[in-house]
């Protein structure tokens, strides 16, 4: 699956291990949630960073205590119209304060890219069939298409559109501060 970050293709070295497959002896590896819960970090001692692939209906409480040791979380998007992954990403960033890499994985289209960034995703692993129809140029255009939004968020993530409301509030506060200092006539 191609990885889109900042509106462009970006290579990555993460290996996605299927359930039951032997884990690589070195390098960064992503396992599914149940494999991570069942084996814990001990099974990954020879590997580089640990990543966890979550379904879009995962209970984040299952990994909450170990989030600081997880280098990458991927959240599955099984279909274009299933937006539960956006909510899960926002919860992971806001409620659980996850600071590592966060990637959407699956059936996202370029029109959803800006919203994914606003929810806290760093990148999107795009399904091969989707990428064949909507390639890198489409993702780049989507990334540049919106730089402002009305929604306030609890965290403005790098690459996400800025909140118009937050910008207006900051401008009012700057103006009020200047008035108090007598800088405005």
Structure commentary:
This protein has two domains: 3-145, Aldolase class I (TIM Barrel); 147-185. Helix content is 31%, strand content 19%. The chain contains six helices and ten strands, in the order ββββαββαβαβααββα. It has an eight-stranded mixed β-sheet with strand order 2-1-8-7-6-5-4-3. Strands 9-10 form a two-stranded parallel sheet. The longest helix is centred in the last third of the chain and has 17 residues, at 164-180. The chain is globular and about 70 Å long.
Query: What's the number of extended β-strand segments?
Result: 10
Mean pLDDT, all residues: 85
Any idea what the radius of gyration is?
19 Å
What is the topology, as strand order, of the major beta sheet? 2-1-8-7-6-5-4-3
Strand content: 15-25%
**How is the CATH topology of the largest domain named?**
TIM Barrel
Gross CATH architecture of the largest domain: Alpha-Beta Barrel
SS field, number of helical segments: 6
Question: What's a concise summary of this model?
Answer:
With 185 residues, this protein is of the alpha/beta class.
How would you describe this structure in keywords?
two-stranded parallel sheet, TIM Barrel, 8-stranded mixed beta sheet, 2 domains, 10 strands, 185 residues
What is the strand and helix layout of this fold?
Elements: E1 3-5, E2 8-9, E3 15-16, E4 29-32, H1 33-39, E5 50-54, E6 72-77, H2 84-94, E7 101-106, H3 113-119, E8 123-126, H4 128-133, H5 136-145, E9 148-149, E10 162-163, H6 164-180
Parallel strand pairs: 3-4, 4-5, 5-6, 6-7, 7-8, 9-10
Antiparallel strand pairs: 1-2, 1-8
């Amino acid at each position: 699956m191609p990885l889109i970050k900042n509106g462009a293709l970006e290579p990555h070295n993460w290996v996605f291990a299927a359930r039951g497959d032997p884990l690589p002896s070195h390098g960064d590896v992503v396992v599914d949630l149940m494999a991570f819960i069942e084996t814990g970090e001990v099974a990954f001692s020879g590997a580089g960073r640990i990543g966890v692939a979550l379904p879009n209906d995962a209970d984040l409480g299952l990994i909450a205590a170990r989030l600081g040791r997880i280098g990458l979380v991927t959240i599955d998007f099984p279909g274009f119209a299933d937006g539960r992954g956006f909510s899960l990403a926002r919860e992971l960033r806001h409620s659980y304060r996850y600071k590592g890499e966060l990637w959407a994985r699956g059936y996202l289209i370029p029109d959803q890219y800006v919203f994914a960034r606003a929810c806290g995703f760093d990148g999107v692993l795009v399904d091969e069939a989707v990428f064949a129809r909507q390639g890198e140029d489409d993702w780049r255009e989507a990334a540049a298409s919106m730089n402002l939004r009305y929604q306030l968020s609890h965290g403005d993530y790098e690459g996400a559109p800025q909140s118009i409301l937050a910008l207006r509030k900051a401008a009012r506060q700057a103006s009020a501060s200047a008035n108090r200092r007598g800088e405005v006539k």
